[in-house]
Amino acid sequence: MIKKASIIGGGVIGGGWAARFLLNGWNVSVYDPDPEAQRKIAEVLTNARRSLPSLYDKPLPAEGALTFHENIADAVKDAIWIQESVPEQLGLKHKIYAQIQQRASSEAILGSSTSGFKPSELQEGAMQPEQIVVTHPFNPVYLLPLVELVPSPITPTALTRQAMELLESIGMKPLHVRKEIDAHIADRLLEAVWREGLWLIKDDIATTEEIDDAIRYGFGLRWAQMGLFETYRIAGGEAGMKHFIGQFGPCLKWPWTKLMDVPELTDTLIEKIAAQSDAQSGQLSIRELEQLRDDNLVGMMRALKQSGSGAGGTITAHEASLPMPVPTELPVTVSQQVPQSWADYNGHMNEANYLQAASLATDRFMELVGADAAYIAAGNSYFTAETHLRYLAEIHAGEHISITTQVLLGEGKKLHLFHRIFGTNDELAATCETLLLHMNLKTRRTSPPARKIALKLDVYVKTHADMLMPRGAGRHVGQKPSRLK
Ligand SMILES: NC(=O)c1ccc[n+]([C@@H]2O[C@H](COP(=O)([O-])OP(=O)(O)OC[C@H]3O[C@@H](n4cnc5c(N)ncnc54)[C@H](O)[C@@H]3O)[C@@H](O)[C@H]2O)c1
User: Fold this and answer.
1) Which end of the chain is less crowded, N or C, counting CB atoms within 10 A of the terminal residue's CB?
2) Does the Cβ of 13 fall within 6 Å of ligand 1?
3) Which pLDDT band, with edges at 50, 70 and 90, does 315 fall under?
């Protein structure tokens, strides 16, 4: 049965949660008294559809249904997850919980997006306090995996475990905050950086742009893949963490930091920050900035997938849980959305990314015949010896592509594949013919595949033997292009 999430408060964060659940196949019901809520959520969804599927090399589940409701009672009906994302006022949140708990299932999890309140504060005076936990996400919720999951001392362990599992099933990385604290973990760190930033502006040391440059050209890049402590471990050199602390620890007592002093947010300071921010980024609309941010996040997270570091590991784990579409005649070896980062200055998919897509198809086919990660780790693999690509139609970023793979030859150490790359409306957009040789990774020489691989491969060889030889196969560069298969 399709799971249902209820979103109470559909602003920046609630809209992001709605998109995250919908694109992972949940039905979503929203309650937000703002007459503009439907339009705002539609815009968040547009951004999410453009970016989230691009993280994966498999299709996400079919999108769930989105409904809007006039009151909380209707919205929470049958929901197994209720996410509260109303403005950050404790009294308002308490009032909302009273209305939710009158009608919601007592089995449902009630997560709050609160950036600052502790779960025990949220639970005060509630009908069923143990149902309420903090699930603090990061903007854009549909793309960033982190969610701080904060139970209180009275939260049942089983509920925390169930919440972890449900959040993981929608591609998130729940960080279990074991001890409740104001503002959880991440916002405490961010506040420290923000506070120093405000001082640097107030004291005329740096502008908003210079502060952002100090982050994005340097330590910001390090943080996304290793965080703070693993980065510092490397900075300590071979002598490691103790050496690093010995060297830089004393600086903490030097006047490098304003520590807990907070600059007063006077009108003059606010005006100064806003004017600098306008000069820095005012030429782009918020929507344009959001799309730039999302494209960059997708590109960075796809890069992290290669090593499995940080957010990349979360995406790989989620992807492994997604089913591949059922093969029809030829196996479908790729079915995914084209990420923005695959588009070039001509506005279509770059030539190199056609090969990247075909290479994903080859990897998938190797998995189908059992030449998977364990087989490779055991010292065997296929290496590409030759490739011929034909570009037949444009493919654009955001478009859904699928690839089928036909075996032309699978004999001894030779594996000869023909990939057909289809764009929207199943139009044949490219073909990639590739010859692979089986290798022994220890001797780095060709070798016959293991018997279990040869047997599985033989099933495809026999099935595909009756099919016509593709007319695009065996061609050389410059031959009259054929649009036929
Ligand atoms: N903005 C962020 O970066 C961020 C990040 C993480 C968590 N949060 C937290 O998420 C929560 C929401 O923040 P936001 O940034 O989305 O705010 P927002 O102002 O964008 O959205 C709040 C939404 O709640 C709606 N609302 C107001 N009263 C309501 C009511 N009685 N019932 C239902 N909906 C109501 C508003 O119409 C609005 O759409 C806060 O607790 C905040 O601390 C914000």
Assistant:
1) N
2) yes
3) very high
- Please determine, for residue 482, whether its predicted confidence score (pLDDT) is greater than 60: no
Is the minimum distance from the CB of 136 to ligand 1 under 6 angstroms?
Answer: yes
* Contacts (Cβ under 8 Å, ≥6 apart) of 196: 257, 258
Q: Closest Cα to atom 35, ligand 1: which residue?
A: 9
Task: Tell me if 71 CB under 6 Å of ligand 1.
Answer: no
Mean pLDDT of the chain: 92
Joined tokens for residue 125:
């005076």
CA angle 307/311/317 to nearest 5° reads 75
| 109/131 Cα distance (integer angstroms) | 6
Cα distance between residue 430 and residue 395, in whole Å: 9
CA distance 302 to 304: 5
Reading across the β-sheet that carries 81-84, which strands appear in turn? 66-68, 27-31, 4-8, 81-84, 109-112, 132-137, 146-150, 173-176
Question: What would the two tokens of residue 354 be?
Answer: 């056609």
| CA separation for the pair 20, 255 (Å, rounded) | 44
CA of 13 to the centre of ligand 1 (A): 6
